[in-house]
Amino acid sequence: MRGWTGAAVAVVMLVCAWFVSGATPDGERRLEDPFIVPAAVSTSVEGRNLGIEVTSLVLADRVSTGGWWAEGTFLIVELDAWAVRTESPAALSVANLVIGDDTYSASERPGDYDDDASLAGRGLFLEHPLAGAIVFELPADVATAHGTLRLALSGEVADSVIVVPVDFAGLEHRAEQALPDVAWANP
Questions:
Q1: End-to-end Cα, the chain, rounded Å
Q2: pLDDT in tens, 177-186
Q3: CA gap 166, 151 in Å, rounded
Q4: What share of the chain is helix, strand, coil (3-state, %, to 5)?
Q5: Are residues 39 and 14 in the same domain?
Q6: What pLDDT does residue 95 have?
Q7: For a Cys-Cys bond, which of 29, 62, 123, 143 suits 176, CB 3.0-4.6 Å?
Q8: Residue 75: how many CB atoms within 10 A of its CB?
Q9: Other Cβ atoms within 10 Å of 78 Cβ, number
Q10: Does residue 89 have a cis bond before it (omega within 30 degrees)?
């Protein structure tokens, strides 16, 4: 009798474990999910080692910097960024804009023509924010969309990701926007 009771308890435990594993979404992959830090324009937020304040979001038909210019549909994100705990490693390496099923990375073109034109990939410093911009080249029909700006130090695995909602219909639209040079932010 004792053998049957032990076997029955073991079967019940296995069935329960099967139900628990089935009810747990994505199993151990969830351990690698980023820590989402919600943010809004003109609000300072800090993740594990990244501090951000998005100061403005502007749509423009033309951007320019240091003798370079380009035409199209651009989202210019002006922001202050700083390291929170350590300067090594601390760089704004991930700057993505998610619109529906599409993900856009920050444009490298402004920084290729003018080193001071983009904060994308820039090293950050403790307690001394850098002010500047990142630029996204977008399709022309984006003006009616909603999106999410995602900023992080490195890949979005097990780190903090600062998330800013973007309502394109509510943004100021300019014919031309000169990009600010990267500089120390005002305290």
A1: 77
A2: 999 988 888 7
A3: 13
A4: 20, 45, 35
A5: no
A6: 93
A7: 62
A8: 25
A9: 19
A10: yes
